[in-house]
UniProtKB/TrEMBL annotation:
InterPro entries found in the cross-reference section: CheY-like_superfamily (IPR011006), NreC/VraR/RcsB-like_REC (IPR058245), Sig_transdc_resp-reg_C-effctor (IPR016032), Sig_transdc_resp-reg_receiver (IPR001789), Tscrpt_reg_LuxR_C (IPR000792), WalR-like (IPR039420)
UniProt key word Plastid: no
Any single GO BP term: regulation of DNA-templated transcription
Keyword terms, alphabetized: DNA-binding, Phosphoprotein, Transcription, Transcription regulation
Organism this protein belongs to: Amycolatopsis bartoniae
Domain HTH luxR-type residues, every copy: 151-216
Name the UniProt record assigns to this protein: DNA-binding response regulator
Residues covered by the Response regulatory domain: 3-121
Gene3D superfamilies, A to Z: 3.40.50.2300
Length: 222
């Protein structure tokens, strides 16, 4: 069973999520929280498999909760699915950098929400290619200068082909699209992605995209 914690300040939405998840044969809602501190406490106490996190919550927003539960200083980073709307794009970028494993829009259909939780529970990231281009790319140039003091030095461990694959990931291509672009098999692309994550000590594809923009491997206008 996938144990889910729901962090959402609106009671009606919380109830809706709970109904959807509890109706699945492989999921159970183990807790709910209506504000940031309550979500932080519940996560530390219940140790859920996946946390469904709203960004805009009272007392402590979802970004800060995510940073504390899944940031670089976390001994056992939580798997967090951020739920948001397009009018808070910048906050989503911050949430991804804080350690979120992915995000969905609040108007996503129930089956997409359920599949998102399953994806993150498996240890994969949830970052739609189209959203990668329109969301992260939109803010990359504004955010990058403050992070790029070391240039692309972190990428020095990558082989040329691995850098090429990382660049395509950051541009929003799926494994299938990367395979077609580079004339490789999908399995070979998956191997490259796995090597990239291991060499750069990254948890998932989301972190790889963020790092590619931070180091300047990809620019927003590309």
């Amino acid at each position: 069973m996938i144990r889910v914690l729901i962090c959402e300040d609106q009671a009606l939405i919380r109830a809706g999520y709970a109904t959807i998840f509890n109706a699945q044969p492989d999921m159970e809602v183990v807790g709910e929280a209506a504000d940031g501190p309550a979500g932080l406490a519940a996560a530390e106490e219940l140790q859920p498999d996946v946390i469904v996190m709203d960004i805009q919550m009272p007392l402590m927003d979802g970004i800060e909760v995510t940073r504390r539960l899944a940031g670089s200083g976390s001994a056992n980073p939580a798997k967090i699915l951020v739920i948001t709307t397009f009018n808070v794009d910048e906050y989503v970028y911050a949430a991804l950098r804080a350690g979120a494993s992915g995000f969905l829009l609040k108007d996503a259909p129930p089956e997409e929400l359920v599949n998102g939780v399953r994806t993150i529970a498996r240890g994969e990231s949830l970052l739609a290619p189209a959203v990668t281009r329109t969301l992260i790319g939109q803010f990359a140039e504004r955010i990058r200068p403050a992070d790029a003091a070391s240039g692309d030095q972190p990428l020095a461990v990558l082989a040329p082909r691995e850098r090429e694959v990382l660049k395509l990931i950051a541009k929003g291509l799926s494994n299938k699209e990367i395979a077609a672009e580079l004339v490789l098999s999908i399995e070979t692309v998956k191997t490259y992605v796995s090597r990239i994550l291991t060499k750069l000590d990254l948890r998932d594809r989301v972190q790889a995209v963020v790092l590619a923009y931070r180091t300047g491997l990809v620019a927003a206008h590309e």
